[in-house]
Design the sequence.
């Protein structure tokens, strides 16, 4: 079906001009033909839907009728297809846990001398 | 040409709408989740572009075309997108063709009559503001 998101009968909702800006930010890309631009925009919409639905289905936010950040980071970590997102959707832990981890690392031995703490 | 950081983002309202419609009614989407999906979408564009570009280069072409994008989807393991994308592309091509012909007719009329500047066609839609690009089907290097 060609109908897409929204009560609108638009073929694609994401603005092609913006998609184009993002695509062109890649240095190795010279030019983009119109069809390719359209397909990229449309694929991105499909991707957004897929990511949202997948994360909701497999995540715990569902228990409260919500889609949460951790549902997304869980997806990025566990699902191979979405692994390219792992770096931008890191799992979050409580600060207290993180500090404990650091403590433990220290105790487990000196970290090879490159212990530069740059606290700003 | 330097882009401002926000230029690489997609409009929040549109992203939110797409998510809302994909999920069951009444599901809450946290702000953080929405923002994360938006960022993911931008990364997806970059990844898809890079992948498609590899196919173009393999074909010794400098211009990314539809086939390159479809190949990229398969490569990225989003094969399930290919069929719906092809369908949409058909519709899009027909639309574009229709617009072109409408414009040609207008040009013809403009020649025989007075200069009739009725550009009301689809100027309201900003993503239809591809007029500039439509004039040249093949984009040349325009860095």
Sequence:
């Amino acid at each position: 079906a060609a109908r897409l998101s929204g009560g609108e009968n638009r073929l694609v909702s994401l603005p092609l001009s913006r998609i184009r800006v993002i695509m062109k930010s890649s240095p190795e890309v010279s030019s983009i033909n119109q069809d390719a631009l359209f397909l990229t925009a449309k694929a991105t919409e499909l991707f957004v839907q897929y990511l949202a639905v997948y994360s909701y289905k497999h995540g715990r936010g569902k228990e409260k009728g919500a889609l949460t950040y951790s549902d997304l980071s869980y997806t990025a970590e566990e699902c191979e297809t979405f692994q390219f997102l792992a770096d931008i959707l890191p799992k979050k832990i409580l600060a207290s846990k993180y500090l404990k981890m650091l403590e433990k690392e220290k105790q487990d031995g000196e970290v090879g001398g490159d212990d530069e703490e740059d606290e700003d | 040409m330097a882009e401002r950081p926000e230029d690489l983002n997609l409009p929040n309202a549109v992203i939110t709408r797409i998510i809302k419609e994909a999920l069951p009614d009444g599901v809450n989407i946290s702000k953080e989740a929405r923002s994360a999906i938006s960022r993911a979408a931008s990364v997806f564009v970059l990844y898809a572009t890079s992948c498609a570009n590899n196919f173009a280069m393999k074909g010794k072409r400098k211009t990314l075309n539809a086939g390159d994008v479809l190949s990229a989807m398969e490569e990225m393991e989003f094969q399930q997108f290919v069929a719906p994308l092809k369908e949409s592309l058909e519709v899009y091509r027909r639309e574009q063709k229709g617009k072109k012909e409408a414009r040609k007719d207008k040009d013809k009329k403009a020649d025989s009559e007075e200069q009739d500047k009725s550009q009301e066609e689809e100027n309201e839609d900003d993503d239809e503001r591809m007029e500039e690009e439509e004039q040249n089907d093949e984009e040349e290097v325009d860095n």
